[in-house]
Design goal:
Elements: E1 2-5, H1 12-21, E2 26-30, H2 33-46, E3 55-58, H3 59-66, E4 72-73, H4 77-86, H5 89-94, H6 104-119, H7 131-154, E5 156-157, H8 159-162, H9 170-173, E6 178-182, H10 189-200, E7 204-209, E8 216-217, E9 222-223, H11 232-238, E10 242-248, H12 251-268, E11 276-280, H13 286-292, E12 300-303, E13 306-307, H14 312-325, E14 328-331, E15 337-342, H15 343-350, H16 353-358, H17 365-373, E16 378-379, H18 381-392, H19 402-419, H20 424-438, H21 443-458, H22 476-489, E17 492-493, H23 497-505, E18 509-513, E19 524-528, H24 546-552, H25 557-573, E20 577-583, H26 594-602, E21 607-609, H27 614-624, H28 649-654, E22 657-659, H29 661-669, H30 671-680, H31 694-711, H32 713-718, H33 725-738, H34 748-774, E23 781-787, E24 794-797, E25 800-802, E26 805-811, E27 815-822, H35 828-842, E28 852-859, E29 864-867, H36 879-891, H37 904-913, H38 915-919
Length: 924
């Protein structure tokens, strides 16, 4: 193999164009795809010859054509399936593999390692391994043998196995007299052997390098360890390049600096338009994209690789996968099954508009919110139908249209059907329909989607043994969908290097990732974000340490880093103007990359610290948020205008006001919030917690106490009650079964073992004390969840009525006992509030004039009873207090702003009422 040295900073385009003009039968193979597209497009556009004897292609295409086989070549996720299918039960046990997804990382690490060992012609027997590595490496060798056997049986071959000199295509080779590699700065031992064989077949091999002879190691066939920039004297004599170096304190300041630099270039060179290419040195991230959103897209565009993960169709499928992954299947006695779908996953899915559009669920959003507000953690077709029937009979928890319920039920039926899929063949039509319904317009997204789908479908055509058996546990459907998502993960919507070249040809300024940089000469280049570790290289040191890799002759990060630095230096030395910028932030531990510091010190560059002033930042924001044809002008912001909330008296008097205790509290303490809440009426929940809602927990406890009292009502009234622990526990289990849809299944075992066992003990204690108390009374009558004044509410003022439901109501010869079960936080404040609640209910008792009323609070966590015997008169809520609060609500002109700023209800609406600004330090 001959090597032609062009020298660092040489004009690759000019030199190759001269070679192309000779029109010889030569194949030019480009290691750098960006250089290939740029040179190919420009030459074909400007070349005079219509027919060419020479040929150009990138390295990937070269190897695709060079190695030929009759076997099926497995790529990407299919390799993982082969890996899993080749594992013996013994190996699975050794590696603690329980499902397909446990092997994905292991498989990719395995293939990466063995492809390297083959590429660098490493003899397995001669590898010096540590004691701790012996068993692992031995297992990997067994897996490798099994994979070879399985591949041969099925007529399959892996890409690294295909790279064998026995698979060279003679027909492809004999087409050319010479093959010229462009900037093949690293040649592996296998490639050296391969090139020697090709040359023996009569084809000349030449490696054209933009390096000096002393910068390339002819023995190792790679860039020398000593590779560096030329000294100052050579730099001044040989290279005509202007380098500017800038330091910024943040990315925003850097963007302002870039736009200012571009503006000045255009301003100073009006007679000659300067095309500046911009490259971001950082790895691609959402942060970069968000930064560049600020730029004028008509003048500066950015080109970063888009992964399928960022597409709407991927997000839709991932939401469906999350729904399937959390499904609970409950078998029924008749052999049928009930599918419980997790509301949290539906809530997440319904937030994506495209998801709603695909499944025609736009009208179901309100229904979902009502179900969530009713504390449902799960839903099923059966439960929806039950709720709908209750709603029709006016006894349900929510109101909804028939179309809403039918749409939701139809959606659940579809999900149940897909959940039962066991093969990819069944999934195929569903995945096609989802994409069509998504109305995705991007052609590249469509191509990648169906490319992944077709590749995945091939798996079932390969006749693997027991395919999918044991791959995903019981949830096969979710596993298959996740498999497809894994395929999509590998399908990046790659940078269209030809499109980038066209944009630049159209004189558009583009920001590209450094990975897309070519090795051709450019007039002006800007490099952004040259801080931290640049270039950042990741070499997978799976199993072997860096020291071991060096001894074996495998590449390490330093080797790969030199290749990236070569591209960086080549672009700097072949340009006219170079603009280097980085971010220095001591707090974030950011500073310039080592290569930047080397350039600064070697060439004595002056560092410009561009600190953007607040004035410049403000000017930028003014322009950014000003209409294109408008202008920004300063506006004075006046004082806060007081605007108390005026009541609609006519509406108040035209509608009846029914007040339970909690509504009364709100009205009394904070009219403004009460009025606003009545106007809003509904609100949307922001999240669903995977735990029992405190309200649901309280309802369960209340039901337990209510049921155990009423189940023993007759015995308690007659004074012959006997405690039955088992019966209390059975009652609780029945209650929990009725809350099946409102209880997170993941925590049920914990709740039953810890929390509810305490509740059973407390209920037992309460019943014992209650039985003892009632045994001393005569003519005992027990009412549970008694609605006081059962059919009518008590009119308190004008068209306002008070109502309430007491947990337990006991009548004796001379006493009324009102009992409230409390499961919340135990505090003096809560105790006072609960007694006030019982005061409120007592005002509706018709017997209150004749009988003495006693009030009890039961702590449901310990079963203890607190009575009202020690209450002070001023702590009691009277009918007069209730009437006065309601009267003020009707007769005052504006809503009061409340005096209890520490209450939750006030904090909820404080940003709306703005009490401090309204009162301005004065009384209402």
């Amino acid at each position: 193999m001959n090597i032609e040295y062009l020298g660092l900073g040489s004009d690759l385009k000019k030199i190759l164009f001269e070679k192309f003009d000779q029109n010889k039968n030569v194949l030019y193979v480009f290691e750098n795809s960006s250089s290939f597209f740029e040179i190919k497009r420009e030459y074909l556009k400007n070349g005079e010859n219509i027919f060419h004897n020479f040929k150009m292609m990138n390295l990937y295409d070269f190897y695709e054509k060079l190695f030929q086989t009759d076997k099926i070549v497995l790529k990407e996720e299919k390799q993982v399936v082969l890996f899993y299918n080749s594992l013996t039960d013994k190996v699975k046990k050794e590696l603690k593999i329980k499902s397909y997804y446990d092997v994905i990382d292991i498989a990719y690490n395995f293939y990466g390692l063995f492809s390297e060992l083959q590429e660098y012609k490493i003899d397995y027997e001669k590898i010096q391994i540590e004691k701790w590595q012996e068993k692992i490496f031995g297992t990997l060798l067994k897996i490798n043998d099994e994979i070879k056997i399985k591949s041969d049986e099925k007529g399959l071959i892996l890409p690294y196995m295909l790279r064998n000199t026995e698979n060279i295509s003679e027909n492809f080779i004999k087409k050319y007299e010479k093959i010229c590699f462009i900037n093949k700065v690293k040649i592996t031992p296998f490639e050296k052997e391969l090139f020697d064989i090709i040359e023996k077949k009569g084809v000349e091999i030449v490696n054209i390098l933009q390096l000096d002879k002393n910068q390339f190691d002819r023995v190792k066939l790679q860039i020398k360890d000593t590779f560096a920039l030329p000294d100052m004297a050579i730099f001044k004599k040989k290279y005509d390049v202007n380098i500017e170096l800038y330091e910024y304190e943040n990315k925003f300041a850097q963007l302002l600096g870039v736009t200012q630099k571009l503006h000045n270039n255009l301003k100073n060179n009006r007679e000659k338009e300067i095309l500046c290419k911009i490259y971001d040195a950082q790895n691609e991230s959402m942060d970069n994209e968000e930064d560049y959103f600020l730029l004028n897209q008509n003048k500066i565009t950015y080109n970063f690789e888009i992964t399928m993960k960022k597409t709407k169709i991927y997000k839709i499928l991932n939401l469906i996968y999350n729904i399937f992954e959390s499904v609970k299947v409950i078998p029924k006695k008749n052999g049928e099954k009930i599918f419980l779908f997790k509301m949290k996953e539906f809530y997440n899915a319904f937030k994506l508009r495209e998801f709603l559009n695909v499944f025609k669920l736009e009208k179901c959003y309100r229904l979902l919110q009502e179900l969530i507000a009713s504390d449902y953690k799960y839903i099923s077709r059966e439960k929806l139908s039950e709720l709908d029937n209750d709603s029709r009979e006016n006894k349900g928890e929510y109101r909804n249209s028939k179309n809403e319920t039918e749409s939701f039920v139809k959606f659940l039926e579809k999900l149940e059907c897909v959940y039962l899929y066991k093969t990819l063949t069944e999934y195929n039509k569903f995945l096609e329909e989802i994409f069509i319904e998504s109305k995705e317009k991007e052609v590249k997204t469509r191509d990648k989607y169906f490319e992944a789908l077709s590749e995945m479908m091939i798996l079932e055509d390969l006749s693997f043994d027991n395919l999918w058996s044991g791959f995903f546990g019981q949830n096969v459907s979710a596993g298959l969908l996740k498999l497809f998502l894994k395929y999509l993960d590998k399908k990046a919507i790659s940078l269209d290097l030809e499109k980038i070249d066209e944009q630049e040809e159209e004189r558009k300024v583009t920001i590209n990732n450094f990975s897309s940089i070519s090795e051709t000469s450019k007039e002006s280049i800007m490099f952004l974000n040259l801080q931290d570790t640049f270039p950042e290289i990741n070499v997978n040191n799976y199993l072997f340490s860096k020291t071991q890799r060096v001894k074996m002759g495998l590449p390490v990060s330093d080797d790969e880093k030199r290749i990236e630095i070569f591209k960086f230096y080549q672009n700097i030395l072949s340009a006219k103007n170079i603009y280097l910028s980085y971010i220095k932030n001591i707090d974030e531990n950011k500073d310039s990359a080592g290569v930047v510091e080397e350039i600064r010190l070697k060439y004595f560059l002056e560092l410009s610290k561009n600190e953007i002033s607040e004035k410049d930042e403000l000017e930028f924001i003014k322009m950014y948020f000003t209409k294109e044809d408008g202008f920004w002008s300063k506006k004075e912001i006046g004082k806060f205008q007081k605007s108390k909330l005026e009541k609609n008296k006519e509406k108040l008097l035209s509608e009846n006001l029914s007040l339970g205790f909690y509504d009364f509290e709100k009205l009394r303490d904070f009219e403004y919030g009460f009025y606003v809440e009545k106007m809003i009426n509904e609100y949307e929940l922001e999240k669903i917690e995977d735990k029992i809602d405190p309200l649901v927990f309280g309802n369960i406890i209340h039901l337990l106490y209510e049921k155990v009292v009423m189940e023993n009502k007759e015995a308690l009234e007659n004074g012959n009650f006997i405690i039955n622990d088992k019966k209390i526990e059975n009652t609780l289990n029945d209650i929990l079964a009725s809350f099946e849809y409102k209880m997170p299944k993941e925590y049920m075992a914990f709740y039953k073992k810890i929390s509810f066992q305490e509740i059973i003990k407390s209920a037992k204690k309460f019943l014992k004390e209650l039985a003892e108390e009632l045994s001393l009374k005569g003519n005992v009558k027990i009412y549970s969840e008694e609605k006081i004044k059962m059919k009518t509410e008590k009119e308190i003022y004008r068209n306002a009525y008070i109502n309430g439901v007491v947990d337990l109501h006991i009548q004796t010869d001379n006493k009324e006992i009102l009992v409230d079960y409390k499961s919340g936080k135990d505090s003096n404040e809560n105790e006072k509030r609960t007694f006030n609640q019982l005061d409120y209910y007592s005002e509706m008792l018709p017997e209150k004039e004749n009988n003495k009323i006693r009030k009890w609070i039961v702590n449901t966590w310990n079963g203890e009873i607190t009575t009202d015997e020690n209450r002070k008169p001023e702590e009691i809520l009277t009918e007069k207090d209730i009437r006065q609060a309601v009267k003020e609500y009707y007769e005052t002109e504006y809503c009061n702003l409340g005096n209890r700023k520490d209450s939750y209800f006030y904090r909820k609406y404080k940003d709306i009422c703005r009490r401090e600004e309204e009162l301005d330090g004065q009384n209402e």
